[in-house]
Design a protein that fits this description.
136 residues, single chain, binds flavin mononucleotide, 31% strand, five-stranded mixed β-sheet, Alpha-Beta Plaits, 36% helix
Length: 136
């Protein structure tokens, strides 16, 4: 049984390249083995992450993630059963959100994940992925 889980959180301190690098390194190794795919969007002190995979595997990862001291205010936005993955090709794609990004300015001007619906967030992630070349 496949699910998709979407959560948001606030980074603890500044998001540095070293921090992102180490998160992505463990994510890519672990997710590949665990059959998890998804996207990590990061920027302006925030994370938006989508995880897809078997329900029990995604739940186990989420339980680990919420204890990670590199972020706080972890808020579960949506969890749904899915037939097919939206991001099958990425063990964890990485997208940087910048407030100067035309996508954010034109289509999501009042961007605030903590006040956005799951639908808005998914559409933001789709827009960001479509115009960037995320790293696999
Ligand atoms: C915002 C954020 C996203 C993360 N995403 C993942 C992920 O997709 N997969 C993963 O295995 N770990 C992820 N982590 C790291 C986990 O919380 C945890 O540190 C890691 O699974 C432990 O792996 P290790 O034993 O290789 O250090 C994330 C951490 C943060 C702060």
């Amino acid at each position: 049984m496949l699910i998709r889980l979407l959560y948001i959180s606030r980074a603890v301190g500044a998001i540095t390249t070293t921090m992102t690098g180490s998160i992505l390194a463990s994510a890519r190794v672990h997710n590949r083995v665990a059959g998890i795919t998804g996207v990590l969007c990061q920027g302006q002190g925030l994370f938006i992450q989508i995880l897809e995979g078997e329900r029990s595997t995604v739940n186990r990862l989420y339980a680990t993630l919420i204890k990670d001291k590199r972020h706080q205010d972890v808020e579960l936005v949506a969890i749904e059963e899915i037939q097919t993955r939206r991001f099958p090709e990425w063990s964890m794609a990485h997208v940087v959100i910048s407030e100067n990004d035309p996508i954010v300015q034109l289509k999501h001007p009042e961007f605030d994940p903590f006040n956005a619906t799951a639908e808005d967030l998914l559409s933001l992630v789709d827009d960001l992925l479509a115009q960037s070349s995320p790293i696999h």
